[in-house]
Amino acid sequence: MEKYMINGGRKLSGKITIQSAKNSVLPIMAGALLTDEQVVIKNCPKIKDVMSMLNILSHIGCKWQFEGDNLIINSLTADKYVVPKELANEMRSSIFMLGALICRFKKAKIYAPGGCNIGLRPIDLHIKSLKKLGVNVSEVQGQIFCSASSLVGKDIYLDFPSVGATENIILASVLAKGKTQIFNSAKEPEIVDLMNYLNSMGAKIYGAGTSTILIEGVDRLHGTEYTPIPDRIECGTFLLATAITGGEIEIHNCNAKNISVLIHKLCDNTCKITTNNDIIYLKNKLMSKSFSFSTGPYPLFPTDLQAQTMALLSVSSGKSVVVENVFEKRFSHVSSLIDMGANISVKGKRAYISGVNRLNGTQVYASDLRGGAALVLAGLNAEGQTIVNNISHIERGYFEFEKKLSSLGADIKKIY
Ligand code: EPZ
After folding, report:
1. Average model confidence (pLDDT) for the chain?
2. Residue 118 CA, closest ligand 1 atom number
3. Spatial CB neighbours of 170, under 8 Å, sequence gap ≥ 6
4. pTM (2 d.p.)
5. C-beta of 113 in contact with ligand 1 (< 6 A)
6. In the chain, which stretches have pLDDT less than 50?
C-alpha cells in the first residue's frame, strides 16, 4: 500500500497552479451524456475520482481520451444505463450519474453509493426529487432501479441544500418538458459551474448560486469546450499547508471569492494574505493565533476544509472550537492528530482544541480524502518523520499532491 514519508519542519515557499475543481468536473463529466456531440473539459485533473468516473462512462459506452490536460468525451455510442456495483463503489460520486442516465435513457440502474468515513450519506433527497419529475424508483438490496415514460418539470423543495441532489435535479430536468424550479438549492460555486457548462451546451438554467434555480427544459444539447472553475478546496489546502509551516506561497489559477470565509479566518490567524486577480499570496509565521469556526452549506465555512484547518489550529496559540454541521462523522482525523501530540477533545459535533508548540512525527492512517490531507499538513509541521498510510484516499482528490508539496520545499516522498 502506498504511503507518504514526510520529514517535517520545512517552511513551504514558492508558487503553484491550481487544478480544475474535482467537485465541478465530476457532475460535468456526467453531463457529457446529455449530448451525442463532443465535449471537451479543459485543465481536467487526472485524479482517481476522475478515472473512476471515466470507467463508468466507458462501461456505459462513451468514448473518451485525454489530449494533454484536456479530457474529450463523446457519448454518441452510449447504450447502457446500468452502473455495476464494483464501479459504483469505487467512489460516491457515481450518484451523479443517476440524473444524467435518466435524462438520456429514461432508465437507470445504479447501486446506492453507500456511506463512507464521513457519514451515512443517504440519497433520500435525490430519490424524492427524481420522483417529483415523474421517475419511478424502486430499491432492491441496495440496487436502485429508475424508469420514466417522460420527464416533466416540477417545483422541487429540498429539505437540505444538498449539493449532489441539486446537481442531479439539474441533470435530470435540463431536457424535461416544461419548467423545473429548485427551492432551497445548494449555492456552491460548483453548482454555478454546472449551470454555466450546461448553458454552454444550449441549456436554459437560471439562478445557480442562489437558493432558487430555474431550469427550462430544451429539446437537445450540443457539444462544448469548457474550462471548469479552479478547485477551491485544493487552493485552501495549500494555503493551510503554507500557514502550518510558517512559510509563504503564491497560488495561481484560484478564485479568492470562493474561499473568502477561510481567507478571512486565516487573516485572524495572523497570516498576511493579498490577492491579485487569480493569484493569492500568503505569508505566515509559526504558532500563529487560533480561531474557531463552524462548517455549513456555502457560503459558510466549507466542510471540505474542516480537517485541514483543524491541523493548523492544533499548532496555533490558544484555544479554539470547531463545529462540524454538515457530516455526522467527519472527525476521523482527530485520533491521528492526537497520536501526533495534538490536544483535542471531541463532544458530538464539536472539537475543542488547545494549540501545542509543535506536533511529533509518527505512523498515521488516512481514512478519508480531506482527513488524509490534514494528516499530511500535520506531518509538514511535525518534529521528525511522519508516515501517512492509505494515501489512495488522498489521491482521489489531489493530483500529484506530494510533487506539488516537494516543489514548495517540503521533504515528502511517496513510498511503497
Ligand atoms: C458534495 O457531496 C461534495 N462531493 C462533498 O465533497 C462536499 O463535502 C459536500 O458536497 C458538501 O459540500 C462532490 O461534490 C463530489 P451533500 P454531497 O448532498 O453532494 C445530507 C470532498 O471531500 N444528505 O451536500 O454528497 C448528507 O448526509 C467531498 O470533495 C441527505 O441527508 O453532499 C450530508 O449530511 C466530501 N440526504 C449533507 O446532506 C441526501 O439525499 C450534505 O450532503 C443527500 C445529502
Report:
1. 96
2. 35
3. 99, 182, 191, 194, 195, 198, 205, 208, 213, 215
4. 0.97
5. no
6. none
